[in-house]
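Protein details
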Amino acid sequence: MVNLEAIWSRVLNDTSVEYYSIHGPDHWVRVERNGLYVAEKTGANKTIVQLFAVFHDCMRWNDSIDPGHGRRGAEYAAQIRSELINISPNDFDKFYYACEWHTDKRTTDDITIAACWDADRLDIGRVGYILDDYFMNSKPAQEIAKRNDLSPLDCLAVRDWAKLTGRLDAP
């Protein structure tokens, strides 16, 4: 079992990503929500999806082009794995791959990696892009993108990451 609250607290404490940046915790919680929606529809591994959400952008150096940021997030997860991430080696490898390649590869046949990548891409509107089903791997994400309608995601709550920080500057 994975203690997601402890993981989020640790990552929020260790990340240098600005809390209010376009790749910060507000984005991560939407990726988690989106991924859980896709996972529910496809049978993807929800734990991997939730880990991806918090780690995929947590080691970015900037909000612009940042090659290798996904791999850095996965490497950070590997460093704290023995303390906090109790998943099988196969699941960890899948999670690592999803983080490492989320910006560099477009498609995958794996439903869990697809849920991770689609979860991130469903939040592309935050930077002014319009959803495009071409970049989605799963049917649920493709349907949302085709309609350009995120309302199906509204039924799921997002994590209150600010409570986990204990910092006064969190929203």
Summary: The chain has eight helices and no strands. The chain has one domain: 4-165. The two ends are 29 Å apart (CA to CA).
